[in-house]
Design a protein that fits this description.
Largest sheet: none
Strand content: under 5%
Structural class: mainly alpha
Number of helices: 7
Number of strands: 0
Distance between the termini: 59 Å
Length: about 170
């Protein structure tokens, strides 16, 4: 609920400052939050508001890609500025090295295999949320998948596979 109030407050400040681009973006954000609230039929929690923000950022990234293909750099730049504004309301995004550390910590001592991708992703995401951060889902998925495939191999380098017929044929 606090994020929704923050958006309202910032929108009023942007209107008073006559910042049309910021006001426009915040109105769009507020409308998206209100639509989600109407769909849910209850006030949004901060986590749900953050999901709305993440969806809006993803939409804008797709739009940037389309505008660049259509040779419309001015529209792509506008979308990029909107992303920066929306990201200001989200927890900080962790970098590559921190992300690797979270994956290592969350999966250390577990027996997840390649078939346990969903459970492994949930474990890592829970660890990241505990830290009050967020991560790029695509990159996180790649790292978890790589870690699970490494862990799916032999427990020791050079050891034979326990499954019969699990070699090259």
């Amino acid at each position: 609920m606090e994020l929704v109030k923050q958006i309202d407050h910032d929108m009023v400040a942007a209107m008073k400052a006559r910042d049309t681009e910021r006001t426009s973006t915040l109105r769009m954000v507020k409308a998206a939050l209100k639509n989600k609230e109407i769909d849910k039929r209850a006030p949004l929690t901060d986590a749900e508001a953050q999901q709305v923000f993440a969806t809006m950022i993803k939409q804008r990234k797709d739009s940037i890609e389309q505008f660049q293909r259509g040779n419309r750099p001015e529209l792509a730049a506008k979308e990029a500025r909107e992303i920066v504004l929306i990201e200001g309301y989200l927890p900080k995004t962790i970098g590559e090295e921190e992300l690797k550390k979270f994956v290592e910590e969350a999966l250390a001592g577990t027996s997840f295999g390649p078939k346990d991708m969903g459970a492994a992703m949930k474990a890592v995401q829970a660890k990241i949320q505990e830290a009050g951060a967020r991560a790029d889902g695509r990159r996180l998925s790649e790292l978890v998948k790589g870690k699970l495939q490494l862990g799916a191999g032999s427990p020791e380098p050079g050891a034979s596979s326990p499954e019969p017929g699990a070699g090259s044929q």
